[in-house]
Design a protein that fits this description.
19 helices, two-stranded antiparallel sheet, globular, alpha/beta
Length: 500
C-alpha cells in the first residue's frame, strides 16, 4: 500500500504494498486470527453447512471420485477451465481428509478469501484498516451469494478483491501480482474476472486524472453497460431483472430466509446513510472527496448494472443458463458501498452499531439454518433406510418469503450411499461432471433434472426402481419418502409450505 494500513489519511509514508501488508499482518496477527476464528463459527455450529448448491458440489465431487476409480459408467469428467476451482478444492482436500471434512475446509477457505479480500479492497479505498466495519463485511460474506452456495462465483469475487487492492495501491512491479491472480479468478468463475478487468481499468484511469474529469470514464463505463444490454438482448435468450430494482442496492444480500431479514437489511441502509450524512456535516468535505470519488462512482455503476444487465442468459441449446446474475452481483455493490463508508471519519459508534446489526443478523441465520439442518438430518435418515446405490429424487421447496433454496440437501445425503437421480449439474454442461444419455445414475437432460426439483417429472419405466423424498406436513418441515411408479409425477404427494 502507499501508506501502511491504520495510519492517518494525511500520512506521507511511501511503503511498498507487500512491505506494508507484512508489517500489518505482523502487528495485528492476533486480531486477524481472532476475527478469522469468529468468522468460521457458522461453518461448525450445525451438523451440516446449509448453503443450497453446496450439497450439489459435494455430491459431484463424490461422483468424480467414482469416475476416477472406474466404479461408474456413463459419466465422465470434462476438461474445464472455469467454474471449477471450488470443486477442485473439494476433490483435493477430499482425497486426503475425506469429503465431509473437505467440505468444511473448502468452505472455510472460501469465506476467509472473500472476507479478507473485501477487507483489503476497503482498506485500499480508504487507506486504513476498516476494523469498525468488519461486522458489516462479515454479514455480506454470509449473505445471499454464500447461502445460495455459489462458491465458484464467491471465490472469484474474493480473489478479485485482493487483486484490485494490490492494483489500486501497489507500486511498480507489485501490480503484476494482481495479474497472477487472474487465472485463479477465471478458474473459479468468469464473471469475477470480467468484474476485475472492468474495475481495474476504471480505477487506473480515474486515479490518473483530476476528479473533475471523472465524468469521462464514468460516461464511457455507462455507455459500455448500455451496449452490453443491447448485445445480450439481441444475441441471446435473456431474462430481465425483477422489480423493484431499488431493492438491489447491496443490502439485499442480507435478505435470506424470510421477511424478518428486512430488519438487518434496513438497519444497514440507515447505518450507511447516517455515516455519510454525519460525515459530510461534521468534517471538511474536501479532505475525503478524493478518496470517496472512485468508490462512489463504481457503486453507482454497479447499481446501474441491475436494470441494464440481464438476470439470466441462455447461451445455447443443451447449456444451462447463467441465472440469478442480478442477485449475485449485489455482493459487489455491497462491498463497494463499504468502501465508500470507510472513507468517512471513524467513530466509536460505528463499531457498536455494526456489531448490534450483525448480532441480529447472525441470530436469525443460526435459527433458520438450524431448521434446515434438522430437515437434512431427516433426509439422511430416510435414505439410509434404502439399500445402497438406489436412485432417489427429491422436491423440497423453500419456506414462505425465503430467497434461499434448500432442495440440494438430497445430494449431500446421497454421498457414498445413493444416487441423486435429479441432480442438475451433469445435464447442465457447465460443470465438470457430465452424463451420457441412458446412464443409470443421473438424468442427462437438464430440463428433466430441473423438472424433478419442481415435482413435475413423469417417471419413466427405465427409471425404476426409484424413490421420492417429499415434504409431507403443512409447514414443510417434515419429510417422507416413498417408491415411485412409472407414469406418475414424482412429487404427486408433496405438501409444501406455500400450500401448493
Amino acid at each position: 500500500m502507499v501508506c501502511l494500513l491504520g495510519m492517518p489519511l494525511d500520512s506521507s509514508c511511501q511503503q511498498r504494498a507487500l512491505t506494508a501488508s507484512f508489517q500489518f499482518a505482523r502487528r495485528y496477527w492476533r486480531r486477524i486470527l481472532g476475527i478469522s476464528a469468529v468468522l468460521l463459527v457458522p461453518c461448525f455450529w450445525h451438523r451440516h453447512i446449509e448453503a443450497c448448491d453446496l450439497g450439489s458440489h459435494l455430491y459431484n465431487a463424490w461422483l468424480a471420485q467414482l469416475i476416477h476409480r472406474g466404479q461408474v459408467s456413463g459419466l465422465w469428467i470434462a476438461g474445464q477451465r472455469t467454474n471449477v476451482l471450488f470443486d477442485l478444492f473439494l476433490s483435493s482436500f477430499g482425497a486426503v481428509f475425506g469429503l465431509h471434512a473437505a467440505e468444511r475446509i473448502a468452505v472455510s477457505l472460501s469465506i476467509l478469501i472473500f472476507f479478507w479480500g473485501a477487507f483489503a479492497l476497503v482498506a485500499a479505498a480508504s487507506l486504513r484498516a476498516p476494523w469498525f466495519l468488519a461486522p458489516i463485511i462479515a454479514m455480506i460474506a454470509f449473505g445471499y451469494t454464500f447461502h445460495m452456495g455459489f462458491f465458484n462465483f464467491y471465490l472469484s469475487l474474493g480473489l478479485s478483491f485482493f487483486a484490485l487492492a494490490i492494483l489500486w495501491r501497489g507500486q511498480g512491479r507489485e501490480r503484476l501480482l494482481a495479474l497472477l491472480l487472474a487465472p485463479l479468478m477465471l478458474l473459479a468463475h468468469p464473471i469475477g474476472l470480467i468484474w476485475f478487468v472492468a474495475a481495474a481499468a476504471y480505477i487506473l484511469i480515474a486515479e490518473k486524472i483530476p476528479p473533475r474529469l471523472h465524468v469521462l470514464p464514468f460516461s464511457a463505463a455507462m455507455a459500455t453497460l448500455v451496449a452490453a444490454h443491447f448485445y445480450f438482448v439481441r444475441r441471446y435468450i435473456t431474462e430481465a431483472a425483477v422489480r423493484p430494482l431499488y431493492m438491489f442496492n447491496g443490502a439485499d444480500q442480507l435478505l435470506l430466509f424470510g421477511g424478518r431479514y428486512r430488519i438487518p437489511s434496513l438497519a444497514v441502509i440507515i447505518f450507511t446513510l447516517a455515516v455519510i450524512v454525519l460525515g459530510l456535516t461534521r468534517s471538511p468535505r474536501e479532505k475525503f472527496r478524493a478518496l470517496a470519488a472512485v468508490p462512489l462512482e463504481l457503486y453507482v455503476l454497479a447499481f446501474a448494472a441491475v436494470p441494464l444487465l440481464p438476470r439470466g442468459i441462455t447461451f445455447g441449446p443443451n447449456i444451462a443458463p447463467i441465472a440469478l446474475l442480478t442477485e449475485r452481483l449485489t455482493s459487489v455493490s455491497a462491498i463497494l458501498a463499504i468502501c465508500l463508508l470507510a472513507t468517512f471519519p471513524v467513530r466509536k459508534w460505528h463499531l457498536a452499531a455494526s456489531l448490534v446489526i450483525a448480532v441480529i443478523f447472525f441470530s436469525f441465520v443460526y435459527q433458520d439454518t438450524a431448521r434446515a439442518d434438522r430437515m437434512e438430518t431427516q433426509v439422511d435418515e430416510l435414505v439410509r433406510t434404502l439399500p445402497p446405490d438406489q436412485r432417489v429424487l427429491a422436491t423440497i421447496e423453500p419456506f414462505p418469503d425465503s430467497r434461499i433454496l434448500i432442495q440440494h440437501m438430497i445430494d449431500r445425503a446421497c454421498v457414498a450411499h445413493c444416487f441423486s437421480y435429479g441432480n442438475y449439474e451433469p445435464g447442465s454442461n457447465v460443470f465438470r461432471v457430465r452424463a451420457v444419455p441412458g446412464n443409470p445414475y443421473v438424468l442427462s437432460d437438464y430440463d428433466d433434472a430441473t423438472s424433478t426439483e419442481a415435482g413435475e417429472y413423469e417417471v419413466q419405466p427405465g427409471d425404476l426402481p426409484i424413490h421420492q423424498v417429499y415434504q409431507c406436513s403443512l409447514d414443510g418441515a417434515r419429510l417422507c419418502m416413498e417408491p415411485l411408479q412409472a407414469g406418475e409425477q414424482n412429487d404427486h404427494d408433496g405438501t409444501h409450505p406455500d400450500g401448493e
